[in-house]
Amino acid sequence: MVTLSTNWTQVPAQETCKLPEQFNTKGTKGSAFSTVSLEFHYDEDCNINFLEHVTVYVEFSFSRYRGDTEIYLKSPSGTTSHILTYRPFDSFVYYDRGDLSWTYMSVHYWGEDPNGTWELLFRSHHGFSAVIVKEWSITLYGTETDPYLGDNQLLTDKQRINQNDGSNDTYIIIGAVIGLSTLLAIGIILLKKKSVSTIVPSKSLSKESTCKIISHT
Length: 217
Description:
By secondary structure, the chain is of the alpha+beta class. The chain has helices spanning 2-5, 88-93, 150-162, 167-216; strands spanning 15-18, 22-23, 34-40, 50-62, 69-74, 80-84, 98-106, 116-124, 131-143. The longest helix is centred in the C-terminal third of the chain and has 50 residues, at 167-216.
C-alpha cells in the first residue's frame, strides 16, 4: 500500500447536473403503466459522461391507497430501477386521496452514459387508484472522464511490486512462521489446562481415601 500510494491515480472530480423540472397531468388507468420522459445531452454546463448515482424528485397524487403506487426509472441505456415499490401496510394506513413528494436515489446506473431519454414509469399496483405525477426532476452525479482508466495503472504498479527482489515471497514466509508459532503456543496452553484438570480430581480422591482410613483406626 505504501508503494502504491507514491503513484496513486485519483478518480476524476465528481460533477453534478440537475435537469429542468418536468410538469405533467397524465394519469394512470387500472394497473397499466403511464410514462413521462425527458432528454439529457452533454454540454458545457452539464459535462457528465459516466454516472455514479441518480436522484429523482417526484410529486404525485393518488385517488386512494397510497401504498399501491409504484414508480420505475429507466435510463437511456435501458437499465430500469424500481425506486418506489408496492407497500401493503402503507395502503392500509393511507387509504384516502392524497399527495406525496419525495426524492429517491438509485445506483443501478453506475458507469452508464446518461445522454439520451430518461423515462419515469408509474402505476397503481392493483389498479385500485388513479395516480398522477404532477412534477418530477432528475439530478445526475458522475464524472466527465472514465473513472476506471486508473485501474490499468494500478495493475501495472502491482505487477512492478511483484517483480521486485522477491520481497512478497519473504512476507509470505514470515506470515507462515508467525501463524505456525501462534498455533503451537495455543496448543501448549491447551495441553497445560488439560493436565491441570486431570490432576485436581486425583488429589481430591486421595484426600477422601485418607479420611476413610483415619476413621477406621
